[in-house]
Every structure is written in structure tokens, then in C-alpha cells.
Design goal:
Elements: E1 2-8, E2 13-17, H1 24-32, H2 43-49, E3 53-56, E4 61-67, E5 75-80, H3 81-88, H4 90-104, H5 106-111, H6 121-133, H7 135-141, H8 146-170, H9 172-175, H10 177-195
Antiparallel strand pairs: 1-2, 3-4, 4-5
């Protein structure tokens, strides 16, 4: 149901929708009506109809998956946190933002900013004085033009889980050489057209 709420930050628009609450009784009735059990499937039927995946998360990987039932030969697919941040676009944006900060002199201002979380009045007054003296430059740098980049990061965060699921289920370009070589050939053709 539409909640009659529309929010905007000048670049993107949010529409608020509400979902109908489900009673616990309805959930229990749905679960009770399923009569399937483990004994209803044979191993051959399971191997033909389904592709089992065994997932494990870790500190350096978002997931590591073992695909298939064969004990001797099965494919291992993983998505590292580095790949996840690359999929969201945040690494490229952070690098570009740092270059813009260096060119505008914002890095020096931010690194010289005193700590705001303090119990001493003098330290907080130094922080406030530093921010007030550099407020015009900071507002000019972090103005409305960053809204587009924030929206692109939002889109990347929305897109990344879908791409990770695609990598898990279908292999994606990382595990499929044909797709990987197609991408390389397309990039090479584009570069050759630009040179001409």
C-alpha cells in the first residue's frame, strides 16, 4: 500500500510503501500444509533437478560456495570483500574523491581538524573555531554536486548483491572464460574505434 509519503534530496526520489502484516497463524498454516520431506526425493532425482550449493562466509570473502554433489570434483566459487566494494563502485569513487580533495586543498583542512569528541571545553572550542574558519571552503567542496555521486553509490549498493548472486549461480565472467574473452574483445574494439 502506498503510504502517501514522497521524499526527495533534490536528486533522487523515495516513495514509501507499506507491506501488509502477516499473522503468525497464517505462517503456521502454510508450513503445516506442506507434506514434502527428505525421504520424498532420491539422490539421482535431486542431482538431475537441482544444483546444490554449500555456502560459507568469512572475513575476507563475502561467501565461499562449493557447487555440486561430486566429492572428487566440484567447483568452488567465491566473492571477496574487495570484489564486493569494486562492484558497488565505492573504490573508484573514493580514489576520485581523494584526488579532488588533494587538488582543492580539503585534505589538509580535514587532517588538521581537531577531535570533536572531547570533555574539555578548550579542545571543543578549537574544533569549532577550525570548522567555522574553514566552513566556506568545506561547503563549496561538499555542495550539491556530490548528490550525483551519492546516487551512483546508492545504485551500486543496490546492484552489487544481484551481481554476487549471479556470480554464485551462473558463474559470471569470473568463472566463464567465454564471457571474459567477449568483454576483452569488446574493450579492444572500442579502443581501436577511439584511436581512429
Amino acid at each position: 500500500l502506498f503510504g502517501n509519503i514522497v521524499k526527495s534530496d533534490g536528486f533522487c526520489i523515495d516513495f514509501i510503501f507499506y507491506r501488509r502484516a502477516v499473522d503468525e497463524n497464517e505462517d503456521e498454516a502454510l508450513i503445516r500444509n506442506h507434506d514434502l520431506g527428505v525421504n520424498d526425493f532420491s539422490m539421482e532425482e535431486f542431482a538431475q533437478l537441482y544444483r546444490p550449493s554449500f555456502l560459507d562466509s568469512g572475513r575476507k570473502t563475502v561467501y565461499t560456495a562449493a557447487m555440486g554433489l561430486d566429492q572428487n570434483q566440484h567447483e568452488i566459487r567465491r566473492c571477496t570483500t574487495k570484489e564486493y566494494y569494486h562492484l558497488t563502485g565505492s573504490t573508484v569513487y573514493a580514489k576520485k574523491l581523494q584526488q579532488e580533495k588533494d587538488a582543492a586543498g580539503i585534505t589538509a583542512i580535514e587532517s588538521a581538524t581537531p577531535i570533536s569528541k572531547t570533555a574539555r571545553n578548550i579542545s571543543f572550542l578549537r574544533f569549532a573555531d577550525h570548522l567555522l574558519s574553514n566552513m566556506d571552503r568545506l561547503f563549496a567542496f561538499y555542495g550539491f554536486r556530490t548528490a550525483k555521486h551519492r546516487f551512483n553509490l546508492y545504485q551500486g549498493k543496490q546492484r552489487a548483491p544481484e551481481m554476487m548472486v549471479n556470480m554464485l549461480l551462473n558463474g559470471g565472467a569470473k568463472y566463464n572464460r567465454k564471457i571474459r574473452f567477449k568483454k576483452k574483445n569488446k574493450k579492444g574494439k572500442r579502443r581501436n574505434k577511439k584511436k581512429k
